[in-house]
Write a structure and sequence with these properties.
single chain; 207 residues; DedA family protein; mainly alpha; 11 helices
Length: 207
């Protein structure tokens, strides 16, 4: 499915299309999750959908799709993981996911959101390791909210440039997050500098 086809599907089925498009990410939909979420933001900017219901359906699509992976891992376990290992492309991501879980434990769930493909495998692993659903939901759903809000907002701002931006995110993953972090720091510094400059100017005028 191309971005054009995704836009057409959203135009036909509205909010529900965003929800189910994210479920298709579980089976390897060509458009990455980040692209779908950003597309949701872009179509609200264009006026095709309302922002709040579009965001909520997008968020629910993200967390419910990943929760399905957790449930399968917890109740089916090793057979599901072995099936992924038999696929050469997925085997590398399985190994990477296992290393993340070994190093960071349950917090690998939060990190995985910013790593394409890995985000779908780690819920299997933590389910397989019998993580309680309460702990899974606490970490995954809170991180999922932040992740969805981030990319939804990026899509709202990017508009027609979503496909190019999604490609960059898919290629660089977690590393790309340094860009908005640096931009935020620069913005805060400029705000502080301007505020201090205004205070100095006002002080000179008063004197």
């Amino acid at each position: 499915m191309t971005y054009e086809a995704l836009i057409t599907m959203i135009g036909q089925y509205g909010y529900v299309a965003l929800f189910f498009a994210l479920w298709l990410g579980i089976v390897g939909m060509p458009v990455p999750d980040e692209g779908i979420v950003m597309t949701g933001g872009a179509v609200t900017a264009s006026g095709l959908l309302l922002p709040i219901p579009a965001f909520l359906l997008t968020y629910l699509g993200v967390v419910s799709g990943l929760t399905l992976g957790y449930v399968i891992g917890r109740w089916i376990g090793t057979p599901a993981l072995n099936r992924m290992r038999r696929k050469k492309k997925l085997a590398l991501y399985v190994d990477k996911s296992e290393r993340l879980v070994a190093r960071y434990g349950s917090y690998a769930l939060a990190i995985s959101y910013f790593l394409p493909v890995v985000r779908h495998i780690i819920p299997y692993l933590v389910g397989l390791n019998k993580m309680s659903f309460r702990r899974y939901a606490l970490i995954s759903y809170s991180t999922g909210f932040v992740w969805t809000l981030l990319f939804f907002t990026l899509g709202y701002v990017a508009g027609d440039h979503v496909p190019q931006l999604a490609l960059l995110v898919q290629r660089y993953g977690l590393q790309l997050l340094w860009l908005p972090a640096i931009a935020l720091i620069v913005y805060i510094i400029i705000r502080i500098w301007k505020k201090q400059r205004r205070l100095l100017t006002k002080g000179r005028l008063d004197s």
